[in-house]
Amino acid sequence: MHNHNQFILSPITNILKDVVSASAGIGGGIETFPMCDYVMQSVFLKMTGSQEQKMKCICWEMATNDLEYRYHFTKMPLGECSTFKDKQIIYKDLIKQIKIHNSSFNISTEINRMVMLDTTASELIERFLNTNLSIWAQKSFNEFSTIWSGISISYFANDDNTLFANGNNEDSLKRIYEEHLYKRRNRIAHNTQSYQQNLPTLKTLVAEKIKYENYFVYFAILILIDKIFIELYKKYLVLLEDN
């Protein structure tokens, strides 16, 4: 097994397991509530950072195995692999590599999107249920199930070019990623809120899209992306070994 494969195939949910274990001894009393934002920010950055490194490792492995791809890879300005655009490019490149070895590959039939969608929610809820993290952010935790129930398999991995569909509705995974998750990632990573007011305006609070400012939704989206790439990478490795 190559150096990066073990990391690439390791589920990002391991980070959630670690944070639940690390915070279990703190308790869930009212005196611990100020810890919520610090812990949520920490696990969120760990997950986004881990996924960014995983994207780079996938590219590096493909470049190692395909000299033509390596030529193009060295000229691609992918940056930190944190944007949705970067992930979409790597998604398409990985499928292209798979189709070199199996031209009939069809992602909509080769991966079980319904299982991915269902297990994303069930694993997250099971991981956080009755923990102090779900107690600290109880409203967001309860709202997560409602939001995620509106997501269907038509939202992601529909074809070779579509990681997340370009939906016009507010609950489009692409829209949530770009307008909420990615912006939150940048605010925390660069501490851009340090010079801003601590509280949102009333106009922001009454906006419908405020419900997507939800760490559990962010975790779920990152887990879903992780599942997609792990399944595709597994198929890539099998075809690579067979050929």
Low-confidence stretches: none
* Gross morphology: globular
Strand order of the largest sheet: 1-2
| pLDDT averaged residue by residue | 88
Number of distinct beta strands: 2
What about the largest sheet?
A: 2 strands, antiparallel
Counted up, domains total 1
SSE arrangement, N to C? HHHHHHHHHEEHHH
Q: Nutshell version of this structure?
A:
The chain has 243 residues and is mainly α. It is built from 12 helices and 2 strands; from the N terminus they run αααααααααββααα. Strand 1 (156-159) and strand 2 form a beta hairpin.
What would you say this structure looks like, in words?
This protein is mostly helical. It has one domain (57-242). The protein contains twelve helices and two strands, in the order αααααααααββααα. Helix 7 (113-128) crosses helix 12 (215-242). The two termini are 16 Å apart. The model has no long low-confidence stretch (mean pLDDT 88).
